[in-house]
Amino acid sequence: MNRIGVHALVWVGGWSEPECQQAIESSKAAGFALIEIPVLDPATIDIAMTRRMLKSVGLEAGCSLGLSFDTDISSADPAVVAAGDRLLHEALDVARGIGANYLGGVIYSALGKYAQMPTSEGRANCINVLRGLARDAAADGITLGLETVNRYESNLLNTAAQTLKLIEAINEDNVVVHLDTYHMNIEESDFRSPVLACGDRLGYVHVGESHRGYLGTGTVDFATLFAALAEIDYQGTITFESFSSAVVAPKLSTTLAIWRNLWSDGMDLARHARQFIDQGLRKAERSLAETNR
Ligand code: MN
Known about the structure:
alpha/beta; 8-stranded parallel β-barrel; binds manganese (II) ion
């Protein structure tokens, strides 16, 4: 069965001890098995405290981040690439330290709007850094996920097909495609064909609505997504991601253009999402079983 997770930004914008406790306890209370912790600034994460809190509550964790233009490993500037390489390894140290087995996000380029096309030199730098990171991650059983995002958040990987190509070039077993319905809704032609194209290479899924608020109140075709996941027998993590101006993370919220209040009560939002995902998955499994009968 899929592990169902929730992004920490549903609860808190920072990672002080009280914030960590609130986020982890709330995730558990809302029925999730995993919390995704943003590690844009790895040095600010208290590894021992986080690990202890996860253990005491009985929750698993994944880590995610987006690089900045100063740490863009898809840059042609060797100094910028080196800074990105260092940051990714610091993030990997956090993932390892807190006992997470997943590090994903926009770890292949800057998270932000580019003013130019990607370059072949930059793409080669990206492949090189991720190959090294994947080998280090594999030693600790950690999987790397390349989150395919919309055109305003990266110029490199906007579709599953592009991500599959990059992963083929990296050529390490522990690198997977990370799909996100919010981004798919903007860039893909539908919610089924990218999932089928990924098949076994799909390793992490973000479910988010078209406006990043309550699931089922926007234009994302979740029924087709869940049916496609059932079709490929996807067993990986599914994490609910939602953002509102009610919870602000200094580095992330402005980059993601979270200007509006989509909700204020994270617990109501999260419980609703948990039920929505559960029902969607069960319905998809039932109809697949009927089709196969
Ligand atoms: Mn996402």
